[in-house]
Write a structure and sequence with these properties.
Structural class: alpha/beta
Mean pLDDT: 79
Number of helices: 13
Shape: globular
Low-confidence stretches: 1-31, 49-61
Length: about 325
Amino acid sequence: DVYKRQIYLHVSSPANHGPPASAWVRSSATKRLGGLVRRAQTLNALLDRSSTTTSAELPAAGPAPPGKSGFEQRVQRVLDGLMYWKSSPKMEVAQLRRLFPQKPDTYLLIELDSGGLNNIRLAFEHHVMVALLTGRTLVLPPRMRWYLLDWGGAKGWDELQNAHDHRLYKLTPPADTHTSEIWDVESLKRGINCITTEEFIAKMRGSLQIPSTFGDVSGGVNGRPFEGDHGWSKWYLSAFKQFEWNPFSVLLYWPSKQAIEADPADVQPSRGLIAGRRPVEYDDSLRNEKVLVMPTRDDLRYLGPAAGMAAFQGGEFGEMAQASRRFQLSLIHI
C-alpha cells in the first residue's frame, strides 16, 4: 500500500515535485517492486522444490478454485491459515449478553497506539475487550494518519521528519485511515455497541456540552493526537475521566476481586497469569461515569495480549473467560 501511494504521488502527479524528484522516485519504486517480484519468484521456486512437504506442515486445503496454479493454491492455503477467525469457535451473542450486559448509554473513548499496524491491533483488541466487559459503547477514533500506513510519524521522530510527512500528507490523496477499513465494524457490533466519533459528537453535543466547533475532527496522527484534530483530543481529555489499565502492570479482576477470591482454589488466577501485576477492579468510581477515556502515551501502551488482561470468575477455562476469548477470536480483519 505504501508503494502504491508513492507511485500515485510521484508518477501520476509529477508536477508536484518537479522532474528530478519524480524520476528518482519512479526509479526507486520500480526497483523496490522489482525486488518484490524477484522474491515471489524465488518463493515459487522453493515451494516447487518442496513437493515432499507433508500435509501436516501446511494448513488443510479446501477445494482448489478452478484455473489456479499450484503456487496460487499453496498461497491460498497459507492465507486461509492466517485468517484464523474463519475457523475459530463462534461467539454466542446470547451468551455474551447474559454474561456481559450492555449499558448503551455509557461510552468508552479510546486512542490509537502510536506504533505500526500490529501495535495498533493489540491495543484496539484490548479496548474492545474493555468495552465488552463493561458494557460501554465503544467510540471509534476519527479518521487519522496511521504510522507506516499513511504519512503519520510515530512519537519520537525528529521534527524535520514530521514536517516532511506533513507535506507528503497534504499532497497524497487519500492519506489517512479509519478503523472500519481494518476491522469489520458490522461484525464487531454483534458483540458490543460501537459508534463513530462523529456520531458520538452529534448525539451527545447537548447533554455533554460538546462545543459547536467540533464537527469534523479527522486529520490527527496516531500517537500524536493533538496534531491536526482541531483540538478535539485536548478537549475530551480534560472533560472526561481518564483511567489506565496498563496490561503490563495491572490485572483486571472480573467481575470483582471478591468474586474471584470466593472461587475454589483450583480455579484461582495462576502465577503465570498474575505475572507480578497488581489487581484492579471496575469499581463505582468508574462505573458511574457516563464517559470514560483510555489515553495513550509513550509510557502507557496497551500491547499485551487481550486474552491475558483479566482474571475471570470461574477461572481461565470458565464460562466468562472462554466467552470473552471466543469474542476476541471472532473479530474480523478486512
